[in-house]
């Protein structure tokens, strides 16, 4: 039989989270962001759960082709735009909308031969300092694009750097509004944190919002708020099984480096999951885990193929018991991915994206 570790993608949770975003920004259309292979879930696995979105936003042309091959005929947006001239040919063929964030992309458009003009999203760098034209240069970039016969419609977009924290979005919104004053075109501003934390702020939510992590059941501002507080549901559950048990006595150690030493007798379970499966190697003793839906902890170092867990709270656990590394156990108990990520010193995004190819995925 195959190794027992498995990732489950929950379509109902995807639908719920999408509806939650719509409720927060009821007057906006929603891009479902499916970059990075739908945050590690697999585009094909999330499509049914997210197909009620108004469009799909992603990064590369392969992902765009996969969305089209699934039968999606609505808007598809390339969030980083094109990287070379021939990308524009595929944009024309697949009817892709694309971001324009630099002069080089405008130059490519000016040389592109097409019978169908493009829909583009002109990006402003309002403080993130990654992609986009500065507020001082934004209007001249818009003018260049507006003069091109290759461009049919120009939308306006920016990206928040601090929507999840105390600084908020007011400064960036002021820059964006000032630089785009009187310019025609739809606007797109909010990411997940922008939607959930600032949708009630006057003028923040525009024509389009771009939720990513919230769709996948991770809180964009954890630990300030949890998924329960935001009414989000986990969309990925990573589950395995206990494949062995050991009875420890006082002074016995566990794993490489003997970093855990038993201070009292306990029973541990060995779980078929390790860093080769994408579970973070640097998760310390005490990282939360569910065994048969009961919350317990890891013991010692994570190895390539196995971790050890404390079975003390799990009286009935034995060989074959279900272990939920994050997500939802079959009995309905939830272990938010954010808690595991916090123990590892990272964020839920990374854990989702890091699940390795040897882990099978099942649509649930």
Q: Largest beta sheet: what is the strand line-up?
A: 8-7-6-5-4-3-2-9
Radius of gyration, in angstroms, nearest whole number: 23 Å
Strand content: 25-35%
Can you give the mean pLDDT?
A: 97
| Structural class label | alpha/beta
Which descriptor suits the 3D outline?
elongated
- Strand segment tally: 19
Number of helices: 12
Q: For this structure, what is the CATH class of the largest domain?
A: Alpha Beta
Unreliable stretches: none
Helix content: 25-40%
For the termini, the CA-CA separation is 20 Å
Would you identify the CATH H-level superfamily of the largest domain? Alanine racemase
- The CATH architecture of the largest domain can be named as Alpha-Beta Barrel
**What is the third-level CATH name, the topology of the largest domain?**
TIM Barrel
The major beta sheet can be summarized as: 8 strands, parallel
Number of domains: 2
Any overview of this molecule?
The protein is elongated, with a radius of gyration of 23 Å. The two termini are 20 Å apart. Helix content is 28%, strand content 25%. The strands form three sheets. An eight-stranded parallel sheet has the order 8-7-6-5-4-3-2-9. It has a six-stranded antiparallel barrel with strand order 10-13-16-15-14-17. It has 364 residues and is an alpha/beta fold. It has twelve helices and 19 strands. It has helices spanning 11-24, 35-39, 43-50, 61-69, 85-94, 103-111, 135-146, 170-179, 192-198, 227-230, 337-343, 348-354, and strands at 6-9, 29-33, 55-58, 76-78, 97-100, 118-124, 151-158, 187-188, 208-209, 236-248, 253-254, 260-261, 266-272, 288-291, 294-299, 306-310, 322-328, 334-335, 360-363.
């Amino acid at each position: 039989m195959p190794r027992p570790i498995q990732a489950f993608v929950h379509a109902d949770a995807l639908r719920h989270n999408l509806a939650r975003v719509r409720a927060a920004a009821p007057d906006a259309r929603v891009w479902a962001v499916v970059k990075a292979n739908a945050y590690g879930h697999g585009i094909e696995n999330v499509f049914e759960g997210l197909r009620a979105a108004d469009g799909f936003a992603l990064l590369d042309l392969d992902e765009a082709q996969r969305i089209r091959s699934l039968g999606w005929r609505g808007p598809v947006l390339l969030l980083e735009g094109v990287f070379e001239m021939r990308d524009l040919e595929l944009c024309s063929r697949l009817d892709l909308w694309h971001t324009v964030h630099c002069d080089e992309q405008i130059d490519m458009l000016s040389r592109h031969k097409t019978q169908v003009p493009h829909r583009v999203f002109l990006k402003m760098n309002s403080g993130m300092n990654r992609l986009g034209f500065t507020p001082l240069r934004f209007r001249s970039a818009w003018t260049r694009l507006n003069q091109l016969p290759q461009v049919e419609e120009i939308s306006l977009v920016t990206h928040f750097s601090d929507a999840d924290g105390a600084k908020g979005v007011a400064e960036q919104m002021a820059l964006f509004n000032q630089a785009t004053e009187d310019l025609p075109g739809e606007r797109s501003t909010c990411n997940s944190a922008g939607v959930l934390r600032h949708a009630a702020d006057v003028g923040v939510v525009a024509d389009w919002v771009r939720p990513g992590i919230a769709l996948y059941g991770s809180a964009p501002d954890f630990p300030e708020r949890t998924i329960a507080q935001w009414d989000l549901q986990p969309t990925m559950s990573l589950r395995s099984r206990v494949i062995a048990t050991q009875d420890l006595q006082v002074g016995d150690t566990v794993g490489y480096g003997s970093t855990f030493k038993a201070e009292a007798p306990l029973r541990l379970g060995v779980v078929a999951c390790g860093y080769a499966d994408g579970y973070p190697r640097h998760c310390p003793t005490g990282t939360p885990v569910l065994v048969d839906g009961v919350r317990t902890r890891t013991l010692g170092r994570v190895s390539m193929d196995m971790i050890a867990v404390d079975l003390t709270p799990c009286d009935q656990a034995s060989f074959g018991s279900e272990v939920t590394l994050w997500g939802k156990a079959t009995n309905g108990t939830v272990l938010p991915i954010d808690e595991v990520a916090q123990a590892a010193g990272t964020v839920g995004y990374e854990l989702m994206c890091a699940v390795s190819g040897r882990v099978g995925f099942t649509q649930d």
